[in-house]
């Protein structure tokens, strides 16, 4: 078949019927859809089985809950299509989404197709269209990387695995990092871009990305984010730009700010039980990777200045004091 669709599903009974019906109603039919039920317990698993019983193109895999990255990896292990695309189970697609995606594939023969998408809210009528602001058509990575960081910062376009199609051989040896709980899409996509000879940008916005969905993996509180893991992702991001000879100008400016911020957040939101180990590690990482301090709030400037000079214990104690004072104020 031409296209394999991978949909990870975990307790999305509120939404899953909609996307499965939209798949059945697609004007393009030469696809397989791998429904990876990630240990659902709200009836999503039954809905998947019911739809699959009526449509041979739908294949259901029931697995113990292991997270969205593991579910996607299971889908990648079983995908047979010439191209692979991802859909999130709480999103929606217009009737000609797959037809348009396949037309872009046939027209370009590109290694990766990047389509536009629409952001929408359940309680609002308006939508926001997201697409590359400057490019439409077939380009090499070099031709689209000069403003990579600014496009990613402003739209997130390069970081989503959905609304894209990847040649099967491009992702053959690439898998999602199952240890990540945030930005796992971006980490995956970065590794695919390096293997792509060319990329086709399609300006049609036929994929509908639901904002603020129930049980959304994108909604994470600050103190629950593993900022240290995000720091490492952004170091890989910097290395990607360096290998592409594009770590300069606006790309460099944006990455230096990101790395500075994530270094500080890794310190500020560090769990109390591992503060000594983490602050020493951050100090060594800051020195080894040459992470520069970029302007920020007063506390951020002081903490990063101290860690840069190796005074990690003082930086740690400042963070602990600030946290204590903040908690006292909140309780009063």
In terms of topology, how is this protein built?
Layout: E1 3-9, H1 16-24, E2 31-38, H2 44-54, E3 58-63, H3 68-78, E4 83-86, E5 92-93, H4 97-108, E6 112-120, E7 127-130, E8 137-139, H5 141-144, H6 148-155, E9 164-167, H7 184-195, E10 199-210, H8 227-243, H9 249-268, H10 275-289, H11 298-308, H12 312-331
Parallel strand pairs: 1-2, 1-4, 2-3, 6-10
Antiparallel strand pairs: 4-9, 5-10, 6-7, 6-9, 8-10
Helix pairs in contact: 1-2, 6-9, 7-8, 8-9, 10-12, 11-12
What would the keywords be for this entry?
about 325 residues; alpha/beta; 10-stranded mixed β-sheet; globular
Descriptive overview:
It is a single chain. Helix 1 packs parallel to helix 2, helix 6 packs across helix 9 and helix 7 runs parallel beside helix 8. The chain contains twelve helices and ten strands. The protein is α/β, with parallel strands linked by helices. The model has no long low-confidence stretch (mean pLDDT 93). 45% of the residues lie in helices and 18% in strands. The longest helix has 20 residues. The termini are far apart.
In short:
The termini are far apart.
Number of E strands: 10
Tell me the overall shape: globular
- Measure the end-to-end span: 63 Å
Tally of helical runs = 12
| Helix fraction bin | 40-55%
| Mean pLDDT across residues | 93
**Strand content of the residues, in percent?**
15-25%
- Report the major sheet: 10 strands, mixed
């Amino acid at each position: 078949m031409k296209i394999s669709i991978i949909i990870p599903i975990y307790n999305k009974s509120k939404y899953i019927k909609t996307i499965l019906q939209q798949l059945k109603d697609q004007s393009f039919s030469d696809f397989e859809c791998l429904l990876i039920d990630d240990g659902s317990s709200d009836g999503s698993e039954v809905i998947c089985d019911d739809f699959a019983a009526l449509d041979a193109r739908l294949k259901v895999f029931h697995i113990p809950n292991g997270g969205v990255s593991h579910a996607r990896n299971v889908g990648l292990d079983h995908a047979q299509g010439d191209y692979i695309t991802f859909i999130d189970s709480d999103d929606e697609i217009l009737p000609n989404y797959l037809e348009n995606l396949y037309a872009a594939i046939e027209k370009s023969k590109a290694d990766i197709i990047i389509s536009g998408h629409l952001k929408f809210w359940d309680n609002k009528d308006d939508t926001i269209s997201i697409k590359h602001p400057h490019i439409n058509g077939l380009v090499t990575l070099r031709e689209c990387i000069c403003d990579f960081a600014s496009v990613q910062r402003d739209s997130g376009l390069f970081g989503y695995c959905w609304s894209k199609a990847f040649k099967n051989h491009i992702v053959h040896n690439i898998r999602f990092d199952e240890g990540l709980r945030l930005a796992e899409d971006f980490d995956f996509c970065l590794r695919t871009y390096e293997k792509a000879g060319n990329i086709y940008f399609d300006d049609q916005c036929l994929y509908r990305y639901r904002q603020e969905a129930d049980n959304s993996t994108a909604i994470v509180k600050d103190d629950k984010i593993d900022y240290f893991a995000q720091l490492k992702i952004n170091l890989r991001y910097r290395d990607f730009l360096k290998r592409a000879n594009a770590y300069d100008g606006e790309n460099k400016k944006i990455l230096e700010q990101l790395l500075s911020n994530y270094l500080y957040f890794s310190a500020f939101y560090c769990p109390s039980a591992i503060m000594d180990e983490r602050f020493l590690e951050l100090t060594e990482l800051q020195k080894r990777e040459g992470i520069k301090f970029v302007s920020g709030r007063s506390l951020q400037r002081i903490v990063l200045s101290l860690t840069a000079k190796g005074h990690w214990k003082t930086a740690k104690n400042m963070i602990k004091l600030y946290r204590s004072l903040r908690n006292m104020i909140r309780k009063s």
